[in-house]
Design a protein that fits this description.
The protein is α+β, with helices and mostly antiparallel strands and about 110 residues long. The protein has four helices and four strands. Helix content is about 45%, strand content about 30%.
Length: about 110
């Protein structure tokens, strides 16, 4: 099961426009996300403005890239490449958050 994070802006008549790309990460590795960045992942979560997540994403990138040995047990638990996949997730989401800092972030489980 995947977790999807989307950036959206609300238009007139309560219509929403999705910005950037959808960002997918395995639902099971939310403990790795929390441990490395402090970001709590919940289903159907409204994270608020994208700019609020920037410091957490930057922290996650620093943690996983500079202290990857401390997180290697997640590769054992969830499969080889889990830590590098989380790093790609952080970098791509950070890029969209910087590009659209006033977009609303929303996350949900996707099939």
């Amino acid at each position: 099961m995947d977790y999807l994070v989307m950036l959206e802006v609300e238009l007139k008549d309560n219509q929403k426009l999705r910005l950037g790309s959808g960002h997918h990460i395995l639902w099971d590795i939310r403990d790795l996300i929390f441990a490395s960045s402090g970001l709590t992942i919940l289903n159907q979560q409204d994270y608020g403005l994208a700019r609020a997540l920037i410091p957490l994403l930057q922290k996650g990138i620093l943690e996983l890239s500079q202290d990857s040995s401390s997180y290697s047990h997640y590769d054992v638990l969830y499969g080889l490449g889990t830590v590098s996949d989380a790093l790609v997730f952080y970098r791509n989401l950070l890029s969209d958050c910087i590009a659209h800092p006033y977009a609303e972030l929303y996350g949900c489980i996707s099939a």
